[in-house]
Specification:
The chain is an alpha/beta fold and 197 residues long. The protein folds into two domains: 29 residues; 152 residues, Protein-Tyrosine Phosphatase, Chain A. It contains eight helices and five strands; from the N terminus they run H-H-E-E-H-E-H-E-H-E-H-H-H. Strand 1 and strand 2 form a beta hairpin. Helix 5 packs across helix 6 and helix 6 packs parallel to helix 8. The longest helix is centred in the first third of the chain and has 27 residues.
Length: 197
């Protein structure tokens, strides 16, 4: 006799509800991911000063310059001269008179405090408006945006940490690809003047 037979079918309805909730949640997550991809995960961090995105195409770079006045691009994926995306990005920046800056980061392992301070300095010195990007615009771009808001703009911890959120596709979980970014920001908090948790 099965469990369903033993319980007289009483489990059928709760299992259907759980299945519906899980299914609906999955559909919502996939729909949100599709929206982020369709928009290039482009967001304003500080209007007229700092923007973040996923890997931009040449057309996207031109649009960001036209619509937001972007004068510099900070590529957080590092120099990749053999990759088509990199050559296209550099060519578009050159054609549009946009300064192109490379800074290599890994979303998985995070960066050291010394590297974080170097990144902050690069962002502070770059011409504005500045566009920062990584591959998906979720993890490395989130950390860079959070560090900029905390160290350069001197916004509070809560405001800065919002850049590392599901809103941008960042999942703050040890099982997620971008966990290194969450750990890096937590490690940086005391040197940014935030109280230790």
């Amino acid at each position: 006799m099965t469990l369903l037979q033993k319980t007289g079918g009483r489990l059928k309805r709760p299992l259907q509800v759980v299945g519906f909730v899980v299914g609906a949640s999955l559909v919502a997550i996939l729909a949100y991911a599709a929206v982020l991809m369709a928009t290039g995960n482009f967001h304003t961090v500080v209007a007229g000063e700092l923007y973040r995105s996923a890997q931009p195409s040449g057309a996207s770079i031109a649009a960001y310059q036209r619509e937001h006045g972007v004068r510099a691009i900070l590529n957080l994926r590092g120099e990749n001269p053999h990759a088509a995306w990199y050559r296209n990005e550099v060519a578009a920046a050159r054609r549009l008179g946009i300064q192109h800056i490379d800074f290599r980061m890994s979303a998985r392992r995070g960066i050291t405090k010394e590297e974080a301070w170097r990144l902050i300095d690069v962002m502070e010195q770059a011409p504005k408006p500045l566009l920062i990007h990584c591959e998906s615009g979720a993890d490395r771009s989130g950390l860079a945006s959070a560090l900029y808001l905390a160290a350069v703009k001197r916004y509070g911890e809560e405001i800065a940490e919002r850049q590392l959120s599901i809103r941008y596709g960042h999942i703050a979980s040890p099982a997620a690809k971008g966990w290194g970014m969450t750990v890096t920001f937590e490690d940086m908090e005391p040197s940014l003047g935030f109280p230790e948790s």
